[in-house]
Amino acid sequence: MQTQFNSKVLVLGKNIDTDQIFPGRFLEIVDPKEIGKRCLYGVNPDIAGSFPKGGVIVAGTNFGCGSSREHAAIALIQMGAGVVVAESFARIFFRNAINLGLPLVTCSGIGAKVQTGDEVTVDIIAGEITLARTGEILSCPPMSEHAMSILSAGGIKPLFRERLSKGKPLCTDIYS
Predict the structure, then answer these.
(1) Of 16, 70, 91, 176, whose CB neighbour count within 10 A is largest?
(2) Coil/strand/helix, residue 59
(3) Are 78 and 36 in contact, with CB atoms under 8 Å apart?
């Protein structure tokens, strides 16, 4: 599993809701690749077409607010987002993203430190973001052991499949 991401960033604002990430009018789409093509359509319809694989999204507070649709996290993954860094995340979006295998990093003040096109390195285990332009290293809470176990497996479903195939109980050490 990739734990470091080095990329130019796409900076978004505060309160980017799930309808901006993946508009409700596209909910009848079931093919994940097609879902990815419409990612961030509510912000700018052209973003998904030029977003780099493994790219970094930086946002302000309350990223993923709004409805609880999993399509938002699926769209980000399929668009190619490697990690999303925000000042804060909506609770349900956070759980959906981790459960689907998309790393999220909370970093206070990140929005004021970078601009679209700046290059950063995000280390989700160390909880560090290095800004190439200034050399500054921002300290952020690292991924929890619980979240890392889900991300390492590729999501909650692959984790459960793996545990079942090894005859392990599904929930004992995961949620303790």
Answers:
(1) 16
(2) strand
(3) yes
Long-range contacts for 41-50 (Cβ within 8 Å, ≥24 apart)?
A: 42/17, 43/12, 43/16, 47/10, 47/79, 48/75, 48/79
Rounded to whole angstroms, how far apart are CA atoms 86 and 14? Answer: 9
Could you tell me the pTM of the whole model? 0.93
Report the distance separating Cα 8 and Cα 55, nearest Å: 7
User: Which pair of structure tokens corresponds to residue 17?
Assistant: 């809701």
The answer to whether 85 touches 107, Cβ cutoff 8 Å, is yes
HSE (side-chain half, CA atoms, 13 Å) at 93: 27
User: Are the CB atoms for 128 and 106 separated by under 8 Å?
Assistant: no
Give the tokens for residue 85: 């860094």
The two tokens of residue 88 are: 């804060």
Mind listing the pLDDT tens digit for each residue in 18-50?
999 999 999 999 999 999 999 999 999 999 999
Tokens 């978004």: give the residue: 12
Q: Would you say 106 and 141 are in contact if contact means Cβ atoms under 8 Å apart?
A: yes
SS3 sequence, 126-158? CCEEEECCCCCEEECCCCCHHHHHHHHHCCHHH
Strand partners, 119: 8
